[in-house]
Specification:
The structure holds 3 protein chains of 3 kinds.
Chain A lengths: L1 H21 L17 E7 L10 H19 L8 E7 L4 H13 L5 E4 L3 H14 L2 E4 L16 E3 L4 H14 L4 E7 L2 H16 L3 E8 L7 H6 L9 E4 L3 H13 L8 E4 L4 H7 L1 H4 L3 E4 L7 H14 L5 H20 L4 H8 L3 E2 L7 E3 L6 E2 L2 E6 L12 E7 L1 H4 L11
Parallel strand pairs in A: 1-2, 1-3, 3-4, 4-5, 6-7, 6-8, 8-9
Antiparallel strand pairs in A: 10-14, 11-12, 12-13, 14-15
Chain B lengths: L1 H31 L6 H19 L3 H27 L4 H23 L15 E3 L4 E3 H23 L1 H11 L1 H6 L8 H19 L11 H14 L4 H21 L7 H12 L13
Antiparallel strand pairs in B: 1-2
Helix pairs in contact in B: 1-5, 1-6, 1-8, 1-9, 1-10, 2-3, 2-4, 2-8, 3-8, 5-6, 9-10, 9-11
Chain C lengths: L1 H12 L1 H21 L2 H21 L10 H18 L3 H23 L4 H21 L1 H4 L5 E2 L13 H24 L1 H11 L1 H7 L3 H27 L1 E2 L6 H14 L4 H21 L4 H15 L3 H18 L5 H4 L14
Antiparallel strand pairs in C: 1-2
Helix pairs in contact in C: 2-3, 3-8, 3-11, 3-12, 3-13, 4-5, 4-6, 4-11, 5-11, 8-9, 8-11, 9-10, 9-11, 12-13, 12-15, 13-15
Classes of the chains: A alpha/beta, B mainly alpha, C mainly alpha.
Chain lengths: 417, 290, 347
Amino acid sequence: MRNSTRALTAALAAGTLLVAGCGRGGPGGGADATVSDDKIVLAVLNDQSGVYADLSGKNSIEAVKMAVADFQAKYGDKAVSGDIEVVSADHQNKPDIANSKAQELYDRGHADVILDVPTSSAALAVANVAKAKKKLYFNVGAATTELTGKQCNKYTFHYAYDTYMLANGTGTAVTRQGGKNWYILYPDYAFGQDMEKSFSAAIGTAGGTVVAKDPTPFPNDNFSTFLLKAPGLKPKPDVLGVMQAGGDLVNLVKQYNEFKLREQGIKLSVGLMFITDIHSLGPDAFAGTTFTDAWYWNFDDRNRQWADRFTARTQTRPSFAHAANYSAAMQYLEAVQRAGTDAADAVVGKLEGYTYDDMFARNATIRAADHRVVHDVYLAEVKPRSEVTTDWDYEKILRTIPAAEAFRPESAGGCTL
Amino acid sequence: MTSLLQQCFNGLVSGGFYALLALGLAIIFGMLGVVNFAHGAFFMLGAFGAYLALAEFGVPFWAALFLVPAVLFLLGMLLERTLIRRLTPFDPLYNFLLTFGLTLVLQDAVKREYGVQSQPYPRPAELSGSIDLGPFDYPAYQVFVLAAAIVLCAAVWLVLTRTRVGMVVRAATERPELTGALGVNVGRWVTPVFAFGVALAGLAGVLAAPMRAVNPLMGADLIIAVFAVVVIGGLGSVSGSVLAGFAIGVAQSLGNLYVPALSQTLIFIIMAGVLLWRPAGLFGREEART
Amino acid sequence: MIRLLLHHTEAAGRRPLRWLLLAAGLTLALALPWLVYPPVAMDIATWALFAAAVDLLLGYTGLLSFGHAAFWGTAAYTSGLIAIHGGLPFPLAVLGGAALAALLAVPIGYLCVRNTGIYFAMVTLAFAQMIYFVANQWRGATGGENGLQGIPREFLGADLSDPFVFYYAGLPIVLFGLLCLWRIVHSPFGHVLVAIRDNPARARAIGYPVDRYKLLAFVLSAALSGLAGGLFSISHGFASLQEVYWTTSGKAVMMVVLGGIGTLWGSTLGAALVVLLEDYLSTSGFNGIGLVTGTVFVLVVLLFRQGLWGAARQLGAAVSRTARRRTPRRRADAPAAPVPTTSTTSR
């Protein structure tokens, strides 16, 4: 045994010497803060096979490519760089893979900006990478307000939506429209708890009452316990507010219909719903449900025009995430154009406080204090099948929620950049 | 009081799914000594089968109820003949690993084809209303599911106790060495029993399609809960697994109402308690544990 | 026991080869961040230790744990919390994580080792799922599904932010863990474990308290898994629910089986393979990572049960046999029976 120990020590010592000799000379050693300006690289890091694949996924890469093409068409020879590249990676909703891939994209892929990154744990992990590498990051796909709260940083921007905007929009608007008494169901984990808090606050501010709220197990396939309880509450709730997402939401809605709560005068309001959810279950299952949407393709001509171009490339209608990725890529490139360089700090300087109005982001401001991109959002209702006229024509926009009201006030998040 | 009854009823409905899955697991285990990790995946295939039958071929729910399990029965036979059988001479853990790998393949294959979005599946029109159960009204479909689960479990029980096939299977499940020693040819029943267990999981999947989210991952989390159920009931005991299934369903439903904080972990806490008290499960016997 | 003795004498005959392999392995471990992207290299190293720790149970004690994510994940969170709030040097944080993982393994192990075979696998899986739910709900400590973010890499003021540098800072911990495993396996204790694996009844008859040995093996395996998990969270700078999910347990088992059950070094090989495959597939544009890994896994279980390392060993033995033209010592060259063969007859 002594023999083995000695050999091991020798090997270790040799290794240490080797390392000491080479120092930081290895591959990937030290990222350079200034990237050569002859090429701009936009990296889309998202979920291409899991729960967010339909919402965003591969078609978001297409959307970003559209933005690059539009940018090049707009500026032609005057563009800051003639060579703009779009690369992508699939993080499979695993934060560790997101973390490694983000580092690799910045270091080896020479990415100047990373876009999308759904799944909050992955999103926050990438935010930390962006901070360490001092490179830009536009999150589109994740809903956590932490990105613009305690875990905000100089290089991270949050586009499109978050839990506060979803809950506040629906809670306020539905209460004002007469849904005074609420029964709230939320999945018992961080997302659900955040949603419930924002929802209850919004309902209270708008003059409504939360009659009862119940955490539900996650994941869960049997919600009858809670649905049975709803009609018996005193006073009887007008609205059932549900914060479940994905498969759980589908379960809940199926059972809501089964227990015929709508017929008993209890409407359904959903915290987080995507057009892809409506598409997968069919509008009938959700008809009459209200929710907040960041963007809807069939809202006006400007959106429809873009959606038609998108559909020509992808054969499907865009979700808000596709449009938001397009917009984020475009605004990044515009900022690079204004700065005349892709050096991260200069671009951040051009983005902070910028106001604009594009196809996705109406009346938009990039808040300098927390890097939340605020813009108009919409209270939507799912149409019954009888009112659906074309494919994917599922939403009726009830109200536009102005940018100033839609998002969390910048003082409330606890962000210090 | 009414609400308590309602909650128990809820629990029985979700317990029905546990029971059907646990039943299939238990008889497969009894016959082959194999714990089928892919049972959740077969459940998912059952639900997807119902969805595809309706969406692609217009096969209604009532036909799918027979057709899909039949298809899964054939799939089960195929898998037993080509894969499972090759590993029976070795330690049963290899088959556990094999079915784990199979789960990944089946899940991802479905995911690649259809994505992870939930697929729509309507309730059959005949069962869209609710039924007056005396103290309360209850959705007809859920009543049907519970009735179907009870009838199926009872039918399997009758087959196991009243027929020659059942006798062999039961004997092989509960006293494997003795059965072989008495000269009963257990081997010829292995394939059909495995396939039957798979078909049962598929049937549970079809039953689940109208009331649960039909997506590739629907079986993954369920199967772990079902593992806990069979550990509680005792893997070697068919009736124990079924009873534990219903009991755990009720316990969870009441847990949801009274101790929501524990609702997810309750089943595992019960399992820990049972392991302390009776390591072989409530209805299991010591020697069945290896 | 007979197999053990044979194994031993035969091993003595192959000493030089063993040292050669060890040196090659070490060189490879040191050169890894030159060959692959450094964060990926670190992942390979941590997963290698995790898989080898799982193999201590599966290969040397005959217990298939499908719930080791509980220990890997618990340590990941604990190390992260220590690093964030304690400001301690990262090796201490990692050790703290490993210690808590070991502590958690005592009650879980106590309940699990009363069962063997399939039962053990199912019970460990169920307990790990319970830990997952606890982690998901215990938001104050774990950050829920946001994960525990912003874990620092503190080491006496040294700058370890570069993953290339951190690899060499973390590697000694992995090597220490592997050394521990190697010593355990080759200690008298390890030999008793193998005896229990091969024939528990006989081990009990000889007078060994079988359950206590199994419990100790379980706790050691959990502690070393924790060592790997803690290092993993420090290296990534966060810990997430992924770490306690059952797929993580499955991944570790998969690595062990691919590499070869009952061959510690095989597990490291399996880990490298799986990590590199996942890394490759994430940029290949192919959806269906489970399809690839699952198929490979099924094929290995069906046709290739001795795993990569076992196959290499067989090949090596065959080559040396033909070269030396001596009577082959067949039994000794066959890989140690992968999983216990107590109930080989089909029922």
